[in-house]
Design brief:
The protein has 21 helices and 23 strands. The chain is an alpha+beta fold and 603 residues long. It binds adenosine monophosphate. It catalyses: ATP + (deoxyribonucleotide)n-3'-hydroxyl + 5'-phospho-(deoxyribonucleotide)m = (deoxyribonucleotide)n+m + AMP + diphosphate.
Amino acid sequence: MALFREVADLAETLAAEPGRLKKRAAIAKAIAAVHAAAPESDDAGLFALYLSGTPFAEADPRKLNAGGALLTKALLSVSGATSAALHAAYKRHGDLGAAAFDLLHDREQGSRIRDQALALDEVATAFAAMVTAKTTAARAALVEGLLRRATPLEAKYLLKLMSGDMRIGVKQSLVEEAIAVAAEAPVAEVRNAVMLEADLASALRRAFAGTLAEARMRLFHPLGFMLASPVDSPEEAAERFANKQNAASVEAFLEDKYDGMRAQVHCGDAEQPGRVTIYSRNREDVTESFPDLAEAFAQVREPLIFDGEILGWDIKAGRALPFAVLGQRIGRKRVSNEWRQQVPVVFIAFDLMYAGGELLLNLPLGERRNRLEAAAERLVEKLRSPLTVDERKSAAQTAMFMQPDGEGVERMILSPARLVQSAEDIERAYADARARANEGVMLKAAASEYQPGRRGLAWVKLKRELATLDVVVTGAELGHGKRAGILSDYTFAVRSADSELLNVGKAYSGLTDAEIAEMSAWMMEHTLEDQGYFRTVEPLMVLEVAFNNIMRSNRHASGFALRFPRIIRIRTDKPVSEIDTVERVEEIYQSQVDKPVENATSH
Ligand code: AMP
């Protein structure tokens, strides 16, 4: 019977061990030992799963439903600590698990006799019960039950595991390697099994049993998304894909870059007719927010996985609505007819990842594209759903009552793609894309494989930044995690006509750790007012920031907000008197093709 203590002890050791190889060896040794002790049990599988920081296998849709508030409350109750003590401990570490260790350690100091050490399968049982718990109170009681039986170190890692944030420098891929080492199996086969079945414990079982080759693809768990690297100019893009034999031609497909929400659609499983799952880029199941799409894909009767982009769609004009409009629908759990009508959505398909019982990732893009086009041709008439539904009926009923072919909104649109010729060609296509209110263009190497979860060079994106702004920092906020105790989030301002400083945004990304440390120290020195987490600082530090869009907003005094702001550099060369003005912000705002409205959420 393996104990949770073994996970906690190893996690603590790994957190302090920077060497990847040493980490891998330590994990492999532990896995081999747990497996040897009870080869028939689930222990080694659970051990690998928990160490990789997930309470359930990826293919398992269950969720613990234990947010920060619930975990914090349980910790307060079990530790008997005051909120102030918890707050202080949290501030020291920026992490609830580490805070728990301090609080419980203080309480413990040698006093306690534990009846029985916590076994891995007991943790698994408690997690399963949390999923089905009817009330928050019942769920909290389960968490408290676990914490009461835990040592401070176990509590630390139980909380980290439950909040899905281990921070021990162990990615799933490292655990996969360790499984391969422990079971003396090829790592590529372990990885492949994990990709197909999305179940680390099952891969581990297979690795020890020698059945990795028998793993088969299952639908309804997200595959990694392939991402694109940025290029700055059409020339650079053309160069990337230039044909070595014939310098004049380029071997890449060109598509518009849509400003919507990346999504992967799974549908058509013969054993579960009508089941559809839509995953977002961060691997969440977002099907609930897009019933109109799900209804359409529910009619597919062949197993398929599509990659594409969900867009708000102007049905009459046949073009995308600005991201900010779609943004209002993203995250909604119940989508009323009003929303279905106000922001109709479509799925723009640009890749086919699975079809005919076969994963297509290793095929060249050209071939995947052919199959995508063929699938779209077979399905296009099916992939419709009504603009609005009779809300008294279920979606399945509505779909059944839909007349065949030709009625309702076409919900899947094939992303037009064509082989590109030259830099000028790309330049023109970019301008056309912008005129269609799309963000820019994507270029994808015609011979490239689909690399799940990778930002490679086979796909590049060309979107010009809007002009950058020079701003001055007016305030700073303490960061979290490894930036706990460091002022790492900066609020910044532009100048008004009468030289007042008006805030326009907040950014934390773009600087190196060393730069942030330096900035933080500087801001501690130049604090005007310390409000705990936030400090206003003397407006002396000038930054150049880039961003994707400007929108009107009441969030900041300038009346504008920047979307996805990032710091490009610290401008020690520029005095505050020369920073950009609100007028300049207005000008950039007006120059945007699609002017985002307030309320936009992030991708
Ligand atoms: P970025 O978010 O700037 O890293 O750009 C990558 C994102 O572009 C992807 O996650 C997609 O959501 C989006 N995208 C838009 N159009 C396309 C397209 N035609 N092909 C691939 N990705 C696209």
